[in-house]
């Protein structure tokens, strides 16, 4: 896992005050699909370092943020831009499908 983690303590600075789009991967260690999507997100991050920032948020360790952003199933990915949720992606997907979902942010 190369994606940096964010927590309740750092979320505002890491995500809400960030310049440019930030994808937050809401995940948990026990979630098989989360583990499947993690290396795909790492690849997308390494291929687009100047376009998008990808962070991971463990829902078990940060239940307040999972509740605030209405995370009811994982993996759930939310792209934040200007402190607001710009798009939501639910479920594990292959790389090409994630890149299609993120196309507007990877231009």
TrEMBL record:
GO biological process assignments: cell redox homeostasis
Q: Which domain of life is it from?
A: Bacteria
What are the cysteine partners in each disulfide bond? 31-34
* Site keyed Deprotonates C-terminal active site Cys: positions: 25
Q: Which UniProt keywords apply?
A: Disulfide bond, Electron transport, Redox-active center, Transport
Cite a single GO MF annotation.
Answer: protein-disulfide reductase activity
Entry-linked Pfam families: Thioredoxin (PF00085)
Q: Which residues form the active site?
A: 31 (nucleophile), 34 (nucleophile)
Q: Which GO terms describe its cellular component?
A: cytosol
Cite the position(s) of the site with description Contributes to redox potential value.
32-33
**Ranges where the Thioredoxin domain occurs:** 1-107
Could you tell me which Gene3D superfamilies the record lists for this protein?
Glutaredoxin
Checking NCBIfam families in the record gives: thioredoxin
Family, as annotated: Belongs to the thioredoxin family.
Instruction: Give the protein name, as stated in the record.
Output: Thioredoxin
Provide the species name.
Microbacterium stercoris
Q: Which gene does this sequence derive from?
A: trxA
